[in-house]
Write a structure and sequence with these properties.
Length: about 190
Amino acid sequence: MILPIYLYGHPILRKVTKDIPLDYPNLQTLLANMFETMYKADGIGLAAPQIGLEDRILVIDLSPLADDNPSFQGFKKVFINAHIIEKSGEEESVDEGCLSVPNIHEKVSRQNRIRIQYLDEHLQPHDEVYEGYKARVIQHEYDHLEGIVFVDLISGMRKQINRAKLNRIIKGDVKSSYKVKFAPQK
């Protein structure tokens, strides 16, 4: 089932998520819905807050980028109860976009290596290191689990330049090719 993606300004995107219990109801259905929603929106990652949940779950599939980078082929992963243990390496500044912030792309500086502990879709534990673009995408989605949106990480000047666009998203004045949920209006 395709779910609406919650847009910038919605309070759920500012909540820090909680680990889920191992007996989480309908987990496999939720994961399937998250992947389906992400694919429909032409995304490569989606975190639970983006579909209105305070659960520590994110999904990533870099396979659509495999033509440009063959190492992304088959990189389809589920991260449950994910916790980044360490960030290291060089700081790299790369353009990012987000399904929750349509039509805005900005350079974000991130370290290029992470160590993350998580459970996979079968609730098996992992402790892994990722580098480069994989680390970037995981960090971007992980930020959603911490109540952070990528525009929080851009320079003050770039934020100011995008202020009008961000305000339009908050007011629900944005076009999107996928189903969305706007922030409640006061």
